[in-house]
Write a structure and sequence with these properties.
Shape: globular
Protein name: Glycine cleavage system H protein
Helix content: 10-25%
Function: The glycine cleavage system catalyzes the degradation of glycine. The H protein shuttles the methylamine group of glycine from the P protein to the T protein.
Keywords: Lipoyl
Radius of gyration: 13 Å
CATH superfamily: RNA polymerase II/Efflux pump adaptor protein, barrel-sandwich hybrid domain
Strand order of the largest sheet: 1-2-3-9-8-5
Subunit structure: The glycine cleavage system is composed of four proteins: P, T, L and H.
Organism: Ferrovum myxofaciens
Length: 124
């Protein structure tokens, strides 16, 4: 599955997609979900929490392992995707259609420093 061109990517396999209201949606890439295996549980950072880049924005538990998801950019959690609590498996089947959290970034330039889809594709 090719990564969509409408977002940027981190070297730790998260995608970041800007929205019209200025928030950034954060999700996991197809490579990440493949490495994790079948997801069973998702725990998300709480709304209002301030995150530094690299700090966990979610914990994903699969049949293989539990993994912290580092936020690729710093900011304040604006929204969480509550539907993942009941249906974490959608991250396995459609990783680019389901975000984990949306954050209001502290520094807009953090987004532009992430990898383009082409650069990310070459890195995996």
């Amino acid at each position: 599955m090719l990564p969509p061109n409408d977002r940027r990517y981190s070297a730790t396999h998260q995608w970041v997609q800007p929205s019209a209201e200025g928030t950034l949606a954060i999700g996991i890439t197809d490579f990440a979900q493949d490495q994790l295996g079948d997801l069973m549980f998702v725990e998300l950072a709480s709304v209002g929490r301030t995150l530094k880049a690299g700090e966990s924005c979610a914990t994903l538990e699969s049949v293989k392992t539990a993994s912290e998801v580092p936020s690729p950019v710093g900011g304040t959690v604006h929204a969480i995707n509550d539907s993942l609590k009941d249906h974490p498996e959608v991250l396995n089947t459609e990783p680019y259609d389901h975000w984990l959290v949306k954050i209001t970034p502290h520094h807009a330039e953090d987004y532009t420093q992430l990898l383009t889809a082409e650069d990310y594709q070459h890195s995996v």
